[in-house]
Amino acid sequence: MDKTIQTTAEAVAQIPDGATVMIGGFGGSGAPIELIHALIDQGAKHLTVVNNNAGNGHVGLAALIEQGRVDKLICSFPRSADPSVFVESYWAGKIKLDIVPQGTLAERIRAGGAGIPAFYTPTAFGTDVAKGKPVEVFEGRSYVQERWLKADFALIKADLGDPHGNLTYRMAARNFNPIMATAAMTTIAQVSQLVGLGAIDPERVITPGIFVAGLTEVPNPAQEEELNWAEAIYP
Q1: Residue 140 within a domain
Q2: Structural domain includes residue 138
Q3: 85: which strand partners?
Q4: What 3-state DSSP class applies to 214?
Q5: How far is CA 13 from CA 5, 17, 41, 83, 235, in A?
Q6: Could you tell me if residue 125 is inside a domain?
Q7: Considering the entire predicted model, what is its pTM?
Q8: b/e string for 85-101 if b means 16 or more Cβ within 10 A?
Q9: How many CB atoms lie within 10 A of CB 210?
Q10: DSSP reduced 3-state for 71
């Protein structure tokens, strides 16, 4: 089955209003900027977005928030290099925030992909983040119950991809992308290079094609940090 999609616009066309969307990346590393910008152009609104942070500058996730498309953000670091867009939206009451410790966020997403509805972690015990959550004691230590995290769609960035959707990642760009691919009903990937079937050594495949619904080639993808250095604004 050939899962290639010709354009980023076609790739995100099916995302409806009100969808929960996981977006890969750790800051700018592994962030699917072109897919996010295509989603802005597409017009979907009232989104719940799961990401490591809240975006920077006026591109990528920050631009999606600035356009008023995100109702709720689930993330670990809402304030990073230049979080002004998120901060202004939050204090204006335009967006809700659910802060999740970074390791817990990763494990909640992994659990969603693995079919594990809940797990226990000592992280956040005794803090506001743990309020209202079940607590159990194991071997004399208190642990907080956390629930799995799943999404309707995942937008991820990979390095190489083949027509069946098998993906590799470049260095640190791997971050949240592989686990988000498993935790979403529909995963859409942008790849820097689309190669033929058999061109990727099976031992190098990080995300098997079974988890990918579609992928589109974006040669020379934009880097969030470089766009911000250039003071870019989208759209």
Answers
A1: no
A2: no
A3: none
A4: strand
A5: 11, 11, 10, 28, 17
A6: no
A7: 0.96
A8: bbeebbeeeebeeeebb
A9: 10
A10: strand
d(C-alpha 19, C-alpha 12), whole Å: 12
* Residue 112: pLDDT over 90: yes
Q: What is the rounded distance in angstroms from the CA atom of residue 203 to the CA atom of residue 123? A: 34
**Worst-scoring range by mean pLDDT, 56-65, 78-87, 165-174, 179-188?**
78-87
Assess if residue 2 is contained within a domain: no
Q: Which residues contact 139 (CB under 8 A, 6 or more apart)?
A: none
Residue 136: strand pairing partners: 143
Number of domains in the chain: 1
Both structure tokens of 229: 């250095």
Chain centre distance of CA 111: 15
Question: Do residues 34 and 58 touch, judged by C-beta distance below 8 A?
Answer: no
Q: Where are the alpha helices (DSSP H) in the chain?
A: 8-12, 33-42, 60-66, 84-91, 102-114, 177-183, 224-229
CATH number at residue 70: 3.40.1080.10
CA–CA separation, 157 and 163 (whole Å): 15
**For residue 218, what are the domain limits?**
8-118+148-229
As a residue count, the chain comes to 235
Strands 141-147 and 135-138 turn out to be: antiparallel
pLDDT digits (tens, 9 = 90+) for 176-219: 999 999 999 999 999 999 999 999 999 999 999 999 999 999 99
CA distances from 148 to 62, 64, 89, 112, 216 (A): 25, 25, 27, 5, 28
